[in-house]
Structures are given as structure tokens and as C-alpha cells.
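The protein record minuted underneath.
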Amino acid sequence: MRYLLTPITMFIWYLLTYLGLYYGMVLMLWMFSLSWIWLIIGYTFLIGIISFLVNSLPALINFLILKFYRLNWFSIIAHSIAGLLGIIYFYYFIYQNPPTMVSGNESTPMLKALWNQSWLKTILLIIPFIGLQLGLIYQGIFSPITMKLEENENEY
């Protein structure tokens, strides 16, 4: 019965990886729109909330999915491929539809517009965004494999 659910859980894994990257980007852009006082007061708090929403909740769901399959190699490889496809599709989507700022008839790439508006905010927010991306890449692709290898170590 568990293996009949594999396509559904792979799709959930794919969505968690893809949407985690997407909402991480959206929430970092939202933080950029905050005034300096709110950014100074709540920087670590807001980064913590964003990383919890983007990394921790999907990690818990992924952990439960892998425990449901009892860390079977087939399910681990299948879910790692689904995570890889989610990551590739996110970057392909951003490549095909680059985020731009539109002002009148003029459109500017998002990163350039953010840099022109405030280079310091851009630097402060790009560092946690890169960390969120790397965390999701590890969680979506490599975490299942390391869980299986750690389980094999514990058996011996």
C-alpha cells in the first residue's frame, strides 16, 4: 500500500522544495520593503520566522514521509530525484521569467533595482536568502540519503 502512495508523496516532496525556494524569495523581498527601524529591530526574529516556515516545516513533513517508507532505498532515491526536479524547475522558472521592477514604461531587473534602492539592505538580505537556498537544496536532495546512511551505521 505504501508504494502506491509513492507518486503522491514524491509530488508533495517536489512541491515542498519548489515552493520553499519560491516563498523564501517572496518573503525576503517583503523584508526588503520594511523600513529600516523594523529591519533593525526584527532582523533576526523575522529571519528566524522565515527560515522556520521555509525550512523547518517542510523538513518535518519530509522526515515523516521517509519514516513512513521506513527509509527504503527506492523511496529515498525517488524522493531525492523529486527534490532535484523541484530545485531545477524553480531556477528554470526564474531564468525564463526573471523578476523585474516595472516603473512606467521602464523595467529593471529586480536585483539591480534593489541595489539601486539600498545596497546595504540588499547585502543584509541576500546572505540569509543564499543560506535558505542551500538549506533547501541539502534538505531536498541530500538529507534523505544521509538519513539512510546514518540508519545503516546505527545497525552495526
